[in-house]
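User: My instructor asked us to take a sequence, write out its structure as tokens, and then describe one feature of it. I'm not sure where to start. Here is the sequence I was given:
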Amino acid sequence: MIQQRYGGALEAIRRRVEGLYGERLVTLAVFGSVGRGAGGPDSDIDLLIVARRLPWGRIARMTEFRRVEDRLAEAPDPEVAGLAQRLSPVIKTPEETRAGSPLFLDMLEDACLLVGGRWFRRGSRVSGRRRNRGERFLTASRSRLQRMSFP
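Assistant: Let's start with the prediction itself. The structure tokens for your sequence are:
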């Protein structure tokens, strides 16, 4: 459902995020109302970006991410250009994600991976015996948060 409803927009975001982070990008996921397939035309687009060798601090990371927004805003398609104002990224290193966060609770059931695996909802079957990194991340987050006494 999410592919049908938001596929073009999320593909445009994915291409620009991959263009910025390149080999440093570990995982890109969409979560929240868009991840659930319930977002409206004015919904923000919640993103989790996990990348290696990020600048230190939120401001530096958002300054770097601004290039994704700028590239979207320059798109000739007005629908794609309008995405730049709707992005709400959470940008973390792999080490920071392993530490866990209550924010990850929102991702446990509705996160859809754009990078780090194929489009899927948590609980869907991943082809082959290897589970992808994104699914392992979500499963590990759930376990860690349960140990921390989060429901």
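For the description part of your assignment, you could build on this observation: The domain at 2-147 is CATH 3.30.460 (Beta Polymerase; domain 2). Try explaining in your own words what that tells you about the chain.
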